[in-house]
Amino acid sequence: MYGLIAIFDERTEELIKNIWKELKEKSISTYAYEVEDRKPHITLASYNSLNKKEFIEQMDITYKNQTVIDIKFNIIGSFLNSGALFFSPTVTKDLIEIHSNHHKDFERFNDNPNSLYLPDNWIPHCTIANRLSEDKLNEVFNYCSTRYSTILGKIVNVALIDVSEKHKAPIIHSIELKHDATLLS
């Protein structure tokens, strides 16, 4: 299994990692520590299997001129009957475009017609906690909704990860997105 993820700027990543750390210290959730080197992210796509060489070549072409995307998390949500809590970003034109362009350019790799990350199924989110009991879900919700306000950040990188091993999700290939000024030079 593989995922294509959008990775945040250092400040946003550290803020979310601090939330994960606080939830662990309060014995509410260990979600962030269940996978080695987990990074805060938004998943853009998932695949059961891949020709990694072809996929990486397509990544290099598709994301060569992709610019950094501003992101604003101002919603706390949960998928029904999931025990998951997430921060959901404001859905902007840029966020929709990176997602829809990815699926258009990588259509030949789609091997799961029921993927939750396909257009018309996708709910962009950054998971804060997962597999929680009803009590713990309420505890995380109350904690996050009173402790934090809007998080402003940026998507600065896209990365292909391998999620086939249970407690690992190594980055196979990543591409740093361009700042607008770098396109001018």
TrEMBL record:
GO molecular function, one term: ligase activity
SUPFAM superfamilies in UniProt: LigT-like
Alphabetic keyword roster: Ligase
InterPro entries (UniProt xref): Cyclic_Pdiesterase
Pfam family name, one: 2_5_RNA_ligase2
PANTHER family, A to Z: PTHR36039, RNA LIGASE_CYCLIC NUCLEOTIDE PHOSPHODIESTERASE FAMILY PROTEIN
Protein name per its UniProtKB record: 2'-5' RNA ligase family protein
Native source organism of the sequence: Salinibacillus xinjiangensis
